[in-house]
């Protein structure tokens, strides 16, 4: 699924934008989309999204920096050295730091090979960023269709629903002088109880699906 998602993110701009007359622009959008998808190496939703957003913002800036710093040559070399050191230190932030630092360095190198005209460079950086945002959109759609660690999420929802039910029960036990407020709390209690039952059923169904995927199709012999 990760490979299929990356193919869609990088392939759609290359196929659609040239047909609309944006041949050169499609290259920068596709590069931004591909590099952003490479940053998504797994983990929690938040860390994966933060990595992709960071790449969509920092890599275009590195591209602009590379375009403007390539003359004289020693300045571009010094900047590349600093980026390489920062990329090596980025691995301390986790598995996502390694490809993130690598993609920033790649964006800098791409910037050293595009025209130094500032408006054109900024346009290339914006296209790169649009490619990253397109990849994030594709990832959000796929995460919705095929959730990551679905069983853990369903179990977490059960615990959250249980906590909400306990809070509603405590609210009902508190004495109140208003009959309307007490009826309202009783309705909240019933709603929390129903939400907990639905969460348990969803978690049970998800557990059955996970067990079926792990065990695979089997055959049961009839009783003699």
Explain the overall architecture.
This protein is an all-alpha fold and 224 residues long. 79% of the residues lie in helices and 0% in strands. The chain is built from eight helices and no strands. It has helices spanning 2-16, 23-39, 45-68, 73-89, 97-111, 118-145, 150-173, 179-215. The longest helix is centred in the last third of the chain and has 37 residues, at 179-215. The radius of gyration is 26 Å and the shape is elongated. The two termini are 43 Å apart.
Topology of helices and strands:
Blueprint: H1 2-16, H2 23-39, H3 45-68, H4 73-89, H5 97-111, H6 118-145, H7 150-173, H8 179-215
SS content category: mainly alpha
Shape: elongated
* First-last Cα distance: 43 Å
Q: Residue share in helices?
A: over 70%
Separate helix tally: 8
Strands, total number:
0
Strand content: under 5%
Estimate nothing, just give the exact number of structural domains: 2
Biggest β-sheet, characterized? none
Q: Round the mean pLDDT to the nearest integer and report it.
A: 78
Low-confidence stretches: 217-224
Radius of gyration: 26 Å
How do the helices and strands follow one another from N- to C-terminus?
A: HHHHHHHH
What attributes characterize this protein structure?
disordered C terminus; mainly alpha; 224 residues; elongated; 2 domains
Give a brief rundown of this model.
With 224 residues, this protein is mostly helical.
